[in-house]
Amino acid sequence: VSGWRLVRLLPEPAARRLFDRIADQVYRRDPRAVQRLRANLDRVVGRPVPEALVHEAVRSYLRYWCESFRLPSWPTGDLVARTRVSNEDTLRQAYAEGRGVVVALPHMGNWDWAGAWACATGMPLVTVAERLRPERLYDEFVAYRRSLGMEILGLGDAAAFRRLQQWVGDGGLACLLADRDLGRTGVPVTLRGHQARMPRGPAVLAQRTGAVLLPVTMSYDGPDLAITIHDPVPHVEGEHGVAAMMQQVADVFGEAFAAHPADWHMMQKVFVGGSAPALRARSGRGG
Fold it and tell me: How many CB atoms lie under 10 A from the CB of residue 280?
């Protein structure tokens, strides 16, 4: 936690250099998390994934952490100025209609930055956060996200979905990470031609509240964050509808992963089935 505060005090170029060095050390050690990242990217770009891309993805992931440590100290004007949004009117119109909006996000670019941008531009939100260890680190994350205007619900909290349903039903914005099934109750989807599982929450929440379901993806562009608002996912009722709606989200995510693979920070298992590539260590090719 003290390191968190120290990173805020560094000039941004110095902080980025520090985290690039950390990323390079992590990549060279090639721990299981990086091997999982490599296996996931195999599915996105085709096997074998270039090692230079894996290295870049590790740097992108550490950039996320660097920025997340520093976000509480960023002037709001700077944050908004460095955020480039495509199809912003789609989100603004959906929010203005008052039906509620459920945004489904992948672990791309910096989702905390995207949430801070929404709050700073008039759209406070509720989201769910995975509990981190140590507890003090989780508390710091919750505190800073709240300082940006987000309401944070703990993953697995019994009342979390009820609160989401109330907030969205009243016309609010909820943002849910949706490219990994943490609750083991997800629905099967096809992602870049391979079997995967995604959480059912975004579709169920949209169904029950009548809210607009919007896939949103992010990527880095130099010092800026690019946010793309995609077309709304049509509602389909029933359990079959949950799977159909999440498949449409998966299709959008898959295209974004292929376009910006280095900015997809997925170091956990996503793909399922016997055809999933085994974890493999770095083979020494380039990067």
Answer: 13
